[in-house]
Amino acid sequence: MLHDQRAERVAVIGGSRIPFCRSHGAYRHLSNQDLMTAALRGLVDKFDLKGQTLGDVALGAVIKHSKDFNLARESVIDSGLSLQTPGVDLQRACGTSLESAVMIANKVALGQIEAGIAGGTDTISDAPIVYPDDYRRILLDIHASRSALDRIKGIFRFRPRHFKPVLPGVLEPRTGLSMGESCELMAREWELTREAQDELALSSHLNAAAAHESGWYKDLITPYKGIERDNNVRPDSTAESLARLKPTFDRSGAGTMTAGNSTPLTDGAAAVLLASEDWARQHNLPVMAYLTFTRVAAVNFIDEEGLLMAPAYAVSDMLRQANLSLQEFDFYEIHEAFAAQTLATLKAWESGLFCRERLGRDAPLGSIDRSRMNIKGGSVAIGHPFGATGARIVATLAKLLHEKGSGRGLISVCTAGGMGVSAIMEAA
Asked: Which DSSP string do the residues of 32-101 spell out, in sequence order?
Protein backbone atom coordinates (compact mmCIF):
# COMPACT_ATOMS: atom_id res chain seq x y z
CA MET A 1 0.00 0.00 0.00
CA LEU A 2 3.01 2.31 -0.19
CA HIS A 3 2.42 4.98 -2.79
CA ASP A 4 5.98 4.80 -4.12
CA GLN A 5 7.59 1.95 -2.14
CA ARG A 6 9.18 4.48 0.24
CA ALA A 7 7.86 5.12 3.72
CA GLU A 8 7.57 8.74 4.78
CA ARG A 9 9.08 9.88 8.06
CA VAL A 10 6.31 10.73 10.50
CA ALA A 11 6.71 14.17 12.04
CA VAL A 12 5.18 15.11 15.36
CA ILE A 13 4.27 18.77 14.98
CA GLY A 14 2.97 19.17 18.52
CA GLY A 15 -0.03 18.77 20.75
CA SER A 16 -2.60 20.53 22.85
CA ARG A 17 -4.88 19.42 25.63
CA ILE A 18 -7.25 20.87 28.14
CA PRO A 19 -6.31 20.71 31.84
CA PHE A 20 -6.90 17.29 33.35
CA CYS A 21 -9.32 17.57 36.26
CA ARG A 22 -10.54 15.24 38.95
CA SER A 23 -13.85 13.68 38.06
CA HIS A 24 -17.09 15.13 39.45
CA GLY A 25 -15.46 18.53 39.70
CA ALA A 26 -14.81 21.28 37.18
CA TYR A 27 -16.09 19.28 34.18
CA ARG A 28 -18.94 17.48 35.93
CA HIS A 29 -21.66 18.69 33.53
CA LEU A 30 -19.63 18.22 30.32
CA SER A 31 -19.58 15.38 27.81
CA ASN A 32 -16.80 13.54 26.01
CA GLN A 33 -17.67 15.56 22.93
CA ASP A 34 -17.41 18.85 24.85
CA LEU A 35 -13.96 17.96 26.17
CA MET A 36 -12.66 16.52 22.91
CA THR A 37 -13.88 19.49 20.89
CA ALA A 38 -12.14 21.88 23.28
CA ALA A 39 -8.83 20.02 22.91
CA LEU A 40 -9.16 20.00 19.11
CA ARG A 41 -9.94 23.71 19.03
CA GLY A 42 -6.82 24.33 21.06
CA LEU A 43 -4.77 22.41 18.50
CA VAL A 44 -6.47 24.14 15.56
CA ASP A 45 -5.75 27.56 17.06
CA LYS A 46 -2.18 26.67 18.01
CA PHE A 47 -1.21 25.59 14.50
CA ASP A 48 -3.51 27.88 12.51
CA LEU A 49 -5.54 25.02 11.05
CA LYS A 50 -8.90 26.78 10.92
CA GLY A 51 -10.78 25.85 7.76
CA GLN A 52 -8.10 23.39 6.65
CA THR A 53 -8.79 19.86 5.45
CA LEU A 54 -6.67 17.14 7.03
CA GLY A 55 -6.38 13.56 5.84
CA ASP A 56 -7.96 11.99 8.92
CA VAL A 57 -8.65 12.50 12.61
CA ALA A 58 -8.54 9.42 14.87
CA LEU A 59 -10.01 9.84 18.34
CA GLY A 60 -11.44 7.65 21.05
CA ALA A 61 -12.88 7.31 24.50
CA VAL A 62 -13.21 4.34 26.83
CA ILE A 63 -16.35 5.27 28.78
CA LYS A 64 -18.92 6.23 26.15
CA HIS A 65 -22.63 6.84 25.81
CA SER A 66 -24.41 5.21 22.89
CA LYS A 67 -24.87 8.73 21.52
CA ASP A 68 -21.08 8.93 21.14
CA PHE A 69 -21.08 6.40 18.29
CA ASN A 70 -19.54 9.02 15.96
CA LEU A 71 -17.57 10.97 18.54
CA ALA A 72 -14.57 11.77 16.34
CA ARG A 73 -16.56 13.12 13.42
CA GLU A 74 -18.87 15.17 15.65
CA SER A 75 -15.89 16.67 17.49
CA VAL A 76 -14.20 17.52 14.18
CA ILE A 77 -17.31 19.33 12.95
CA ASP A 78 -17.11 21.76 15.87
CA SER A 79 -13.31 22.02 15.96
CA GLY A 80 -12.76 24.71 13.32
CA LEU A 81 -11.33 22.28 10.78
CA SER A 82 -12.94 22.05 7.36
CA LEU A 83 -16.04 19.86 7.38
CA GLN A 84 -14.32 17.86 4.66
CA THR A 85 -11.97 16.46 7.32
CA PRO A 86 -13.06 12.91 8.22
CA GLY A 87 -12.97 11.39 11.68
CA VAL A 88 -12.80 7.83 12.98
CA ASP A 89 -13.43 6.39 16.45
CA LEU A 90 -11.17 3.72 17.91
CA GLN A 91 -10.49 2.27 21.34
CA ARG A 92 -7.73 0.31 23.06
CA ALA A 93 -8.59 1.03 26.67
CA CYS A 94 -5.93 3.23 28.31
CA GLY A 95 -3.78 3.03 25.19
CA THR A 96 -6.49 4.57 23.02
CA SER A 97 -4.86 7.84 22.00
CA LEU A 98 -1.39 6.31 21.62
CA GLU A 99 -3.00 3.75 19.34
CA SER A 100 -4.74 6.57 17.46
CA ALA A 101 -1.34 8.25 17.01
CA VAL A 102 0.01 4.99 15.59
CA MET A 103 -2.93 4.77 13.18
CA ILE A 104 -2.44 8.32 11.89
CA ALA A 105 1.34 7.82 11.75
CA ASN A 106 0.94 4.69 9.65
CA LYS A 107 -1.29 6.54 7.19
CA VAL A 108 1.29 9.30 6.90
CA ALA A 109 4.13 6.81 6.50
CA LEU A 110 2.26 4.97 3.76
CA GLY A 111 1.53 8.17 1.89
CA GLN A 112 -2.23 7.77 2.31
CA ILE A 113 -2.53 11.15 4.01
CA GLU A 114 -0.26 14.17 4.45
CA ALA A 115 -1.42 15.19 7.92
CA GLY A 116 -3.81 14.08 10.60
CA ILE A 117 -4.74 14.44 14.25
CA ALA A 118 -4.73 11.76 16.92
CA GLY A 119 -6.28 12.10 20.33
CA GLY A 120 -8.73 10.96 22.92
CA THR A 121 -10.95 11.92 25.79
CA ASP A 122 -12.74 10.51 28.80
CA THR A 123 -15.05 11.77 31.49
CA ILE A 124 -16.14 9.75 34.47
CA SER A 125 -18.37 12.65 35.49
CA ASP A 126 -20.66 11.90 32.53
CA ALA A 127 -20.45 8.12 32.66
CA PRO A 128 -23.46 6.28 31.17
CA ILE A 129 -25.85 4.80 33.70
CA VAL A 130 -27.92 1.90 32.41
CA TYR A 131 -30.76 -0.19 33.77
CA PRO A 132 -31.08 -3.99 34.11
CA ASP A 133 -31.47 -6.06 30.95
CA ASP A 134 -34.96 -7.19 32.08
CA TYR A 135 -36.09 -3.56 32.07
CA ARG A 136 -34.69 -3.05 28.57
CA ARG A 137 -36.38 -6.20 27.27
CA ILE A 138 -39.76 -5.13 28.65
CA LEU A 139 -39.43 -1.74 26.95
CA LEU A 140 -38.58 -3.42 23.65
CA ASP A 141 -41.50 -5.80 24.01
CA ILE A 142 -43.84 -2.88 24.69
CA HIS A 143 -42.49 -1.08 21.64
CA ALA A 144 -43.14 -4.18 19.51
CA SER A 145 -46.67 -4.68 20.86
CA ARG A 146 -49.41 -4.62 18.23
CA SER A 147 -52.27 -3.54 20.47
CA ALA A 148 -52.98 -1.20 23.35
CA LEU A 149 -53.86 -4.18 25.54
CA ASP A 150 -50.48 -5.82 24.91
CA ARG A 151 -48.74 -2.56 25.76
CA ILE A 152 -50.67 -2.30 29.04
CA LYS A 153 -49.83 -5.91 29.88
CA GLY A 154 -46.17 -5.08 29.30
CA ILE A 155 -46.32 -2.15 31.70
CA PHE A 156 -47.60 -4.44 34.48
CA ARG A 157 -44.46 -6.59 34.12
CA PHE A 158 -42.34 -3.86 35.69
CA ARG A 159 -41.05 -4.49 39.21
CA PRO A 160 -39.19 -2.13 41.59
CA ARG A 161 -35.91 -3.96 40.92
CA HIS A 162 -36.09 -2.89 37.28
CA PHE A 163 -35.60 0.75 38.25
CA LYS A 164 -32.35 0.23 40.13
CA PRO A 165 -29.59 1.58 37.88
CA VAL A 166 -26.51 -0.44 37.07
CA LEU A 167 -23.63 1.89 37.85
CA PRO A 168 -20.57 1.69 35.58
CA GLY A 169 -17.53 -0.12 36.86
CA VAL A 170 -14.14 -0.82 35.33
CA LEU A 171 -13.97 -4.52 36.13
CA GLU A 172 -12.24 -7.13 34.05
CA PRO A 173 -15.05 -9.41 32.85
CA ARG A 174 -12.72 -12.43 32.83
CA THR A 175 -11.57 -12.05 36.43
CA GLY A 176 -14.17 -9.82 38.07
CA LEU A 177 -11.35 -7.70 39.52
CA SER A 178 -10.88 -3.98 39.19
CA MET A 179 -7.63 -2.71 37.72
CA GLY A 180 -6.52 -1.63 41.18
CA GLU A 181 -7.26 -5.04 42.68
CA SER A 182 -5.38 -6.68 39.82
CA CYS A 183 -2.40 -4.39 40.29
CA GLU A 184 -2.37 -5.12 44.01
CA LEU A 185 -1.73 -8.75 43.07
CA MET A 186 1.15 -7.58 40.88
CA ALA A 187 2.58 -5.55 43.74
CA ARG A 188 2.52 -8.67 45.90
CA GLU A 189 4.07 -10.86 43.20
CA TRP A 190 6.90 -8.41 42.54
CA GLU A 191 7.37 -7.65 46.26
CA LEU A 192 6.86 -3.92 45.83
CA THR A 193 6.93 -2.01 49.07
CA ARG A 194 4.53 0.74 50.04
CA GLU A 195 7.52 3.05 50.52
CA ALA A 196 8.78 2.51 46.95
CA GLN A 197 5.33 3.24 45.55
CA ASP A 198 4.95 6.39 47.61
CA GLU A 199 8.41 7.54 46.56
CA LEU A 200 7.47 7.26 42.88
CA ALA A 201 4.17 9.06 43.52
CA LEU A 202 5.96 11.87 45.34
CA SER A 203 8.37 12.30 42.43
CA SER A 204 5.42 12.42 40.01
CA HIS A 205 3.72 15.21 41.97
CA LEU A 206 6.85 17.26 42.55
CA ASN A 207 7.94 17.00 38.91
CA ALA A 208 4.49 17.98 37.63
CA ALA A 209 4.23 20.84 40.11
CA ALA A 210 7.64 22.20 39.10
CA ALA A 211 6.72 21.97 35.42
CA HIS A 212 3.49 23.89 35.97
CA GLU A 213 5.17 26.48 38.18
CA SER A 214 7.85 27.16 35.56
CA GLY A 215 5.24 27.53 32.82
CA TRP A 216 6.54 24.50 30.93
CA TYR A 217 3.04 23.23 30.19
CA LYS A 218 1.65 26.60 29.17
CA ASP A 219 1.91 26.02 25.41
CA LEU A 220 0.64 22.44 25.72
CA ILE A 221 -2.52 23.25 27.68
CA THR A 222 -5.53 25.19 26.43
CA PRO A 223 -7.37 26.79 29.38
CA TYR A 224 -10.94 25.56 29.61
CA LYS A 225 -13.90 26.54 31.78
CA GLY A 226 -11.70 28.80 33.86
CA ILE A 227 -9.15 26.06 34.56
CA GLU A 228 -5.56 26.67 33.48
CA ARG A 229 -3.63 23.73 34.92
CA ASP A 230 -4.12 20.11 35.96
CA ASN A 231 -5.93 20.22 39.29
CA ASN A 232 -4.84 16.90 40.75
CA VAL A 233 -1.19 17.92 41.09
CA ARG A 234 -0.22 18.32 44.75
CA PRO A 235 2.86 20.55 45.12
CA ASP A 236 2.67 20.15 48.89
CA SER A 237 2.95 16.36 48.77
CA THR A 238 5.43 14.80 51.19
CA ALA A 239 6.51 11.30 52.01
CA GLU A 240 4.80 11.72 55.37
CA SER A 241 1.45 12.81 53.93
CA LEU A 242 1.47 9.91 51.45
CA ALA A 243 2.37 7.44 54.20
CA ARG A 244 -0.71 8.44 56.20
CA LEU A 245 -3.15 7.29 53.52
CA LYS A 246 -4.91 3.96 53.96
CA PRO A 247 -4.80 1.19 51.33
CA THR A 248 -7.66 1.43 48.84
CA PHE A 249 -7.86 -1.90 47.03
CA ASP A 250 -6.79 -4.39 49.71
CA ARG A 251 -7.87 -3.48 53.22
CA SER A 252 -6.80 -6.74 54.81
CA GLY A 253 -3.67 -5.14 56.20
CA ALA A 254 -1.47 -6.43 53.40
CA GLY A 255 -2.42 -3.79 50.83
CA THR A 256 0.14 -1.26 49.60
CA MET A 257 -1.81 0.75 47.01
CA THR A 258 -3.51 3.96 48.11
CA ALA A 259 -5.28 6.92 46.57
CA GLY A 260 -1.93 8.70 46.78
CA ASN A 261 0.09 6.25 44.72
CA SER A 262 -2.65 5.47 42.19
CA THR A 263 -4.13 7.59 39.42
CA PRO A 264 -7.33 9.42 40.34
CA LEU A 265 -10.51 9.23 38.29
CA THR A 266 -9.97 12.04 35.81
CA ASP A 267 -11.77 14.00 33.09
CA GLY A 268 -9.89 15.48 30.16
CA ALA A 269 -8.94 15.36 26.48
CA ALA A 270 -5.77 15.67 24.40
CA ALA A 271 -4.78 15.81 20.74
CA VAL A 272 -1.58 15.77 18.70
CA LEU A 273 -0.81 16.78 15.11
CA LEU A 274 1.18 14.37 12.93
CA ALA A 275 2.31 14.97 9.35
CA SER A 276 4.84 14.34 6.64
CA GLU A 277 7.92 16.55 6.55
CA ASP A 278 6.79 18.06 3.24
CA TRP A 279 3.43 19.06 4.70
CA ALA A 280 5.14 20.63 7.71
CA ARG A 281 7.44 22.69 5.46
CA GLN A 282 4.55 23.80 3.25
CA HIS A 283 2.70 25.06 6.31
CA ASN A 284 5.76 26.66 7.91
CA LEU A 285 5.47 24.44 11.00
CA PRO A 286 8.58 23.19 12.78
CA VAL A 287 8.95 19.45 13.32
CA MET A 288 9.29 18.73 17.04
CA ALA A 289 10.16 15.03 16.77
CA TYR A 290 9.62 11.86 14.76
CA LEU A 291 7.55 8.83 15.69
CA THR A 292 9.77 5.97 14.57
CA PHE A 293 8.83 2.64 16.14
CA THR A 294 5.81 1.18 17.90
CA ARG A 295 4.67 -2.15 19.25
CA VAL A 296 1.61 -3.62 20.92
CA ALA A 297 1.45 -6.76 23.06
CA ALA A 298 -0.98 -8.76 25.17
CA VAL A 299 -0.61 -11.27 28.01
CA ASN A 300 -2.65 -14.10 29.44
CA PHE A 301 -3.70 -12.25 32.57
CA ILE A 302 -6.43 -14.75 33.44
CA ASP A 303 -4.17 -17.44 34.86
CA GLU A 304 -0.53 -16.70 33.96
CA GLU A 305 0.46 -13.04 34.17
CA GLY A 306 -0.28 -9.77 35.90
CA LEU A 307 -2.99 -7.73 34.19
CA LEU A 308 -0.75 -4.75 33.46
CA MET A 309 2.48 -6.51 32.48
CA ALA A 310 2.06 -6.37 28.69
CA PRO A 311 4.20 -3.21 28.26
CA ALA A 312 7.21 -5.20 29.45
CA TYR A 313 6.73 -7.43 26.40
CA ALA A 314 5.83 -4.65 23.96
CA VAL A 315 8.94 -2.65 24.82
CA SER A 316 11.19 -5.72 24.58
CA ASP A 317 9.87 -6.60 21.12
CA MET A 318 10.15 -2.98 20.00
CA LEU A 319 13.76 -2.71 21.16
CA ARG A 320 14.63 -5.81 19.13
CA GLN A 321 13.03 -4.27 16.06
CA ALA A 322 14.84 -0.96 16.59
CA ASN A 323 18.14 -2.68 17.53
CA LEU A 324 18.38 -0.59 20.68
CA SER A 325 19.08 -1.31 24.32
CA LEU A 326 16.82 -0.08 27.11
CA GLN A 327 19.49 2.35 28.23
CA GLU A 328 19.80 4.19 24.89
CA PHE A 329 17.11 6.76 25.68
CA ASP A 330 17.22 10.29 26.95
CA PHE A 331 13.65 10.28 28.25
CA TYR A 332 11.25 7.60 29.48
CA GLU A 333 7.54 8.35 29.53
CA ILE A 334 6.03 5.41 31.39
CA HIS A 335 2.33 5.71 32.12
CA GLU A 336 1.72 5.51 35.85
CA ALA A 337 -1.63 3.75 35.99
CA PHE A 338 -0.44 2.97 39.49
CA ALA A 339 2.99 3.46 40.95
CA ALA A 340 3.02 -0.32 41.44
CA GLN A 341 2.49 -0.96 37.73
CA THR A 342 5.44 1.23 36.74
CA LEU A 343 7.67 -0.38 39.38
CA ALA A 344 6.63 -3.90 38.35
CA THR A 345 7.54 -3.15 34.74
CA LEU A 346 10.94 -1.75 35.74
CA LYS A 347 11.60 -4.73 37.98
CA ALA A 348 10.63 -7.16 35.22
CA TRP A 349 13.16 -5.59 32.87
CA GLU A 350 15.81 -5.96 35.56
CA SER A 351 14.97 -9.63 36.22
CA GLY A 352 17.18 -12.19 34.52
CA LEU A 353 14.57 -14.89 35.12
CA PHE A 354 11.69 -12.87 33.64
CA CYS A 355 13.71 -11.73 30.64
CA ARG A 356 14.92 -15.24 29.95
CA GLU A 357 11.70 -17.19 30.50
CA ARG A 358 9.13 -14.61 29.42
CA LEU A 359 10.90 -12.35 26.94
CA GLY A 360 13.24 -14.93 25.40
CA ARG A 361 16.35 -12.89 26.12
CA ASP A 362 19.78 -14.13 27.13
CA ALA A 363 20.27 -11.28 29.61
CA PRO A 364 18.13 -8.78 31.51
CA LEU A 365 17.11 -5.63 29.72
CA GLY A 366 18.50 -3.89 32.79
CA SER A 367 17.61 -0.77 34.72
CA ILE A 368 16.95 2.73 33.51
CA ASP A 369 18.15 6.07 34.82
CA ARG A 370 15.13 7.03 36.91
CA SER A 371 16.08 10.71 36.73
CA ARG A 372 15.06 10.55 33.05
CA MET A 373 11.62 9.08 33.73
CA ASN A 374 8.45 11.22 33.70
CA ILE A 375 10.50 14.30 34.42
CA LYS A 376 7.53 16.63 33.92
CA GLY A 377 5.25 14.47 36.05
CA GLY A 378 3.34 11.29 35.35
CA SER A 379 -0.22 10.07 35.47
CA VAL A 380 -0.32 9.66 39.26
CA ALA A 381 0.01 13.43 39.57
CA ILE A 382 -1.41 14.75 36.31
CA GLY A 383 -4.35 12.35 36.20
CA HIS A 384 -5.50 9.77 33.70
CA PRO A 385 -8.52 10.35 31.47
CA PHE A 386 -8.33 6.88 29.93
CA GLY A 387 -8.57 7.86 26.27
CA ALA A 388 -6.41 10.98 26.54
CA THR A 389 -3.20 9.88 28.25
CA GLY A 390 -1.37 8.60 25.17
CA ALA A 391 -1.77 11.89 23.30
CA ARG A 392 -0.66 13.80 26.40
CA ILE A 393 2.50 11.72 26.55
CA VAL A 394 3.30 12.07 22.82
CA ALA A 395 2.98 15.86 23.01
CA THR A 396 5.06 16.03 26.20
CA LEU A 397 7.84 13.86 24.80
CA ALA A 398 7.90 15.78 21.52
CA LYS A 399 8.52 19.01 23.42
CA LEU A 400 11.21 17.44 25.61
CA LEU A 401 13.07 16.15 22.56
CA HIS A 402 12.67 19.44 20.72
CA GLU A 403 14.12 21.38 23.64
CA LYS A 404 17.07 19.02 23.93
CA GLY A 405 17.63 19.09 20.18
CA SER A 406 18.79 15.49 20.03
CA GLY A 407 18.18 12.05 21.41
CA ARG A 408 15.24 9.71 21.69
CA GLY A 409 12.45 8.85 24.09
CA LEU A 410 10.55 5.70 25.00
CA ILE A 411 6.81 5.48 25.68
CA SER A 412 5.17 2.64 27.59
CA VAL A 413 1.43 2.45 28.30
CA CYS A 414 -0.46 -0.39 29.99
CA THR A 415 -4.12 -1.01 29.26
CA ALA A 416 -7.09 -2.96 30.53
CA GLY A 417 -7.55 -6.39 29.02
CA GLY A 418 -3.91 -7.28 29.58
CA MET A 419 -2.50 -5.20 26.73
CA GLY A 420 0.33 -2.72 26.34
CA VAL A 421 1.35 -0.15 23.74
CA SER A 422 4.88 1.20 23.30
CA ALA A 423 6.56 3.69 21.00
CA ILE A 424 9.86 5.38 20.27
CA MET A 425 10.25 9.03 19.32
CA GLU A 426 13.40 10.76 18.10
CA ALA A 427 14.36 14.41 18.07
CA ALA A 428 14.05 16.25 14.77
From this structure: HHHHHHHHHHHHHHHTT-TTPPPSEEEE--SS--GGGTTHHHHHHHTTTS-TT---EE--BTBTHHHHHH
